[in-house]
Design goal:
Strand content: under 5%
Helix content: over 70%
Number of strands: 0
Length: 447
């Protein structure tokens, strides 16, 4: 399957679920109420927070499945798949047991109203089972990508989003279900996609000569995958603490309603940035290819691609955020049709400023990854984490409000943009790329 087509499927795998979420969100806010919907968001966010247990194995699964199949080593590919399933199955069960056992305590920590505490415990325990199911789904998504079947990965993601949020909307509008019913629908969707993805993966294995009987999980394969995924895991863990855990902090200080307000505002603005990241992900393989060519004109071509990509990303991002900022009140009121629209609107305006600056860094992020230096992106993520909570800490001196968290995120995104622009111009373009072009076989770590 062509690179261009895989890129298109990757974009569809983001755009379609994002569209489903945006359509379903106001229905669920109105149907469940801000308190109940906030509980649902917090409970399902636990899966994201515990995603650090991934150890970067999803990225390693993609890498080694693709590498082993390119070498014609079906036995090694089978070992990678078996090891991933074994590890993710074990971690999923452990994570589910942890969330389920802590459910009553979590409900008290997140300031859930007394009248909602009993159903909230049930929601957290259902979300715990969903966590285990989704952990296994990620193995199959990585397997599909490693086999260059981004179409199957996109189909699974779109199906999961459609069944989860589409089913929830149907349940709320036609069945009058509450927060427990919506969580049951979400869990059922995950189990259905898990079964379907497993069946398709088995078919794909048989059609490509990967027999489950070739080999099982092994410690050798686990060490191999851990060595690759370690740095990815660091960045992913920090990203989780920066985004998902922020919801839990807000819940602890301000309660579930504040979570609904903040997440709603963040969802609107961050989806635009995520679409840009998906669109310009092609910068990573383009950078790797042009650097490896190391011929006359390659640096000029790479610079041209970089400038065009960064400029286009910045222009589109700033224009989109400016339009959203200008028409925020009208758009959000029309979209949500809920009393919380008045609280969401000022947060959206604050976040628009940060995400407008962030749009210029998308191409830079992928280029640095293409140079083989994910450690830079990981370090930047750590700085982001520290800065967000530092700003929140300073603002907390006068008492916290939900808008303070939006200010902290926006300040962080602006600082992030300044760092990437300066780093790329001073270090990447003046030092790394010229030396790599002269000696493409040089290890980037030696720069």
């Amino acid at each position: 399957m062509s690179f261009r087509r895989n890129s298109l499927y990757g974009l569809l795998g983001f755009v379609v679920p994002a569209g489903i979420v945006l359509v379903a969100y106001p229905v669920l806010v109105r149907g469940l109420g801000p308190e109940a919907f906030g509980i649902y968001l917090v409970a399902t966010s636990m899966s994201g927070v515990l995603g650090f247990l991934d150890f970067g194995f999803s990225a390693a699964t993609v890498q080694f499945i693709a590498e082993d199949m390119a070498r014609g080593n079906q036995r090694a590919a089978a070992a990678v798949l078996a090891t991933s399933l074994a590890l993710y199955g074990t971690l999923g069960i452990a994570g589910a047991a942890l969330i389920g056992s802590l459910a009553p305590w979590l409900v008290s920590v997140f300031s859930v109203a007394p009248s909602m505490q009993a159903p909230a415990v049930v929601v957290f325990r259902l979300a715990a089972v969903q966590f285990a199911a989704f952990f296994l789904i990620t193995v199959y998504l990585s397997f599909f990508k490693g086999m260059h079947r981004f179409d199957l990965s996109a189909l699974a993601i779109m199906g999961l989003s459609g069944l989860t949020y589409g089913g929830a909307v149907v349940g709320v509008k036609l069945g009058g279900v509450g927060v427990i019913g919506v969580t049951v629908i979400s869990l059922t969707a995950n189990l259905m996609i898990l079964g379907a993805a497993g069946a398709v993966a088995l078919w794909l294995c048989r059609s490509t000569g990967i027999s489950p009987s070739l080999t099982g999980a092994s410690l050798h394969t686990m060490r191999r995958m851990f060595g690759f995924g370690m740095f990815v895991a660091i960045e992913k863990t920090v990203a989780i603490l920066t985004s998902q855990a922020l919801r839990l902090v807000i819940a602890g200080f301000l309660g579930p309603v504040a979570v609904t307000v903040f997440v709603t505002a963040f969802t609107i603005t961050s989806k635009i940035a995520a679409a840009l990241r998906a669109t310009f992900e092609v910068m990573m393989p383009a950078t790797a290819r042009l650097v490896q060519e190391g011929v006359h004109g390659s640096q000029r071509r790479l610079r041209g691609v970089y400038v065009k990509g960064a400029s286009l990303s910045a222009v589109v991002g700033v224009a989109a955020m400016a339009g959203l900022y200008t028409h925020a009140a009208r758009l959000i009121t029309w979209w949500l049709r809920s009393p919380i629209a008045a609280e969401v609107t000022p947060l959206v305006k604050i976040l628009c400023i940060g995400f407008a600056a962030h749009s210029a860094t998308v191409v830079m992020y992928h280029m640095i990854a293409g140079l083989g230096r994910p450690v830079v992106n990981a370090a930047a993520a750590i700085v982001e984490l520290v800065l967000i909570y530092a700003v929140v800490g300073v603002l907390a001196l006068d008492g916290l409000s939900v808008s303070d968290f939006a200010v902290a995120v926006s300040v962080d995104l602006c600082a992030h943009a300044v760092f990437y622009v300066a780093f790329c111009e001073v270090v990447v373009w003046r030092r790394w790329i010229p030396r790599l072009m002269r000696n493409p076989n040089m290890e980037v770590a030696a720069l």
